[in-house]
Amino acid sequence: MELKGKAICYGDNIDTDVIIPARYLTTSDPAELARHCMEDIDPDFHSKIETGDIIAAGSNFGCGSSREHAPLAIKTAGISCVIAKSFARIFYRNAVNIGLPIIVSDAEIREGDKLSVDLKNGILVNETTGEKANFPAFPAFLQGIIEAGGLMKAMAGGVFR
Amino acid sequence: MSMTMTQKILAAHCGTDSVRAGDMIVADCDLVLGNDITAPVAVNEFEKCGCGRVFDGGKIALVMDHFTPNKDIMAAEQVKKVRDFATDMKVKNYFDVGEMGVEHALLPERGMVTAGDLVIGADSHTCTYGALGAFSTGVGSTDMAAAMASGKVWLRVPEAISAVLTGKPGPYVSGKDVILHLIKQIGVDGALYQSLEFSGDGVAALTVDDRLCICNMAIEAGGKNGIFPVDEQTLAYLKEHGAKEPKVYSADADAKYARTITMDLSKLKPIVAFPHLPENGRTFDEIGEVKIDQAVIGSCTNGRLSDLRDAAKVFKGRKVAKGVRAIIIPATQKIWMDAMHEGLFDIFVEAGCAVSTPTCGPCLGGHMGILARGERCVATTNRNFVGRMGDTQSEVYLSSAAVAAASAVMGKLAAPDMLD
Ligand code: SF4
Questions:
Q1: Predicted complex ipTM
Q2: How far is it, in rounded angstroms, from Cα B47 to Cα B89?
């Protein structure tokens, strides 16, 4: 699968409280959550993004609470994938489980850069700078969950048996 | 093959003799936990997939603690969804107002976790139960839904950091100070994907409450779990709270660790984590004058009876500074009642504190003490991220109960020994 979009950049330790503040967690409606995505760190998020855009961040992206509302809000807002130097572990598993593509990469990315991501072959191309980077594939077990379309579908397919 | 304590528990729960760091495993859960924020999402997933019945109504705990007593109509609807699910699925351990407490204080108190258990919870602070010699870790709502259906969870076997504790903590130094010092040292992602395995002669000098607080914040260093060896204190705690027969695992003498950190507890001083990360710890020689508007003493980190006693010692015969709101939130109904019988509430109320029913409330900016723009709060909670307790321009300072109480009295960040 190839994803294309422009980069929206953030720094290190972007926590789930700024991705989706707890005051909005009285709902589990994805569209409502998406409306408040990144609100506390980037009030212009929604005016900046177009469907398919890619978040590029520093280390420990998604640290903090276990709220799956965070990757869900990002995904529903129209972000096609998140690239970070590292991910907090619960965010990482939540993204896998709900089918939000995430990539661990140190590639140099600037706000607005046009990116294209080949998930299957692990290739990230920065079309603005012409740079190309490889990123590691998921372990086979997780690749299976992703290909099934998330954990619930993978479980129906027998991944836990 | 030599294994860490965590690896041994994981191996035992996926039916093999040994596992290695990096292995992907599917493990059996002894307990699956969710709350009023994460369980509704899990219930949606569970229902969408047509999973049918839960794997075991006795091995699921649903604790309505974040926005309860329901703060508004939407919160009430969420709790109702979980309550209906619990009734329908015959989930025995459903806790609502009147019985509930903050989940990570409630489960150990109710004897629902024992040494050697594997517990997952759709709440990041599920790592708390490592204090009891269990493997426990936070997961998401879809993990919770899958585990409610199957009793299983996928895990990547972690490598571990060995944290060797020596010496005895001095006066006014608690588990909170230990973990804030550790996070300051290794950073908020210093233990990413790893276990924090504690050992050393300093362990005996820490109470089970201290250890619960320390493991609670393993996640604030990015850790998958924190875990303490099982000793006499652990066994006595498990027995007192009616937990199942413990299974005691210990790390092999030649277990491999990614690195070793040593910490001399006798050298630690009370510490406060400054906004907006738990790694921003400062001791009082580096603090200066920081005025506060509010103090919150409660949460799954420090809302236990020992914390309330520490706070009461400071508040006794003193008053909360003019202009400061001090809010005390006992973490469970039992803690609430014990504190009342001990006379702690008299001390708090005479000092000018408000005492609340158990709830997470302000810890996550839910209700019961939200901050306005520019306000500062010293809190015994575990996170001080931007906007965590209210406006994005407000600030949260993390500390022990004794420091929070002293700060409430002084109207500024203060250690108890600065009082007289
Ligand atoms: S007290 Fe705070 S950290 Fe603990 S479970 Fe509640 S919201 Fe989470």
A1: 0.95
A2: 12
